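input
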Amino acid sequence: FLLQFGVAIPLYNCMLCIYHLLTIKHGWKEDQVRSVEKLFHFIPLGFAAATSVTLAANGSYGDAMFWCWIATNRKHVTHVLRWTTFY
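output
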């Protein structure tokens, strides 16, 4: 669960890049940034929470060799879930 929730880290990095792009290149002021700030938090946390909870509800977590992560009875389904929810 926590490993899957770690997908929020690169998404937060992306949000910081967008923030710097808006403030430096496009000259956005503080009040303009505040209007989209909630999205900068909701997108990474929302995606990480949604995928983590969905996988837990489906019983998709299990032994995945080195750690507990996405593991199903069907190998191709496991790969599809890993690629669509993490990579």
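quick obs: The mean pLDDT is 82.
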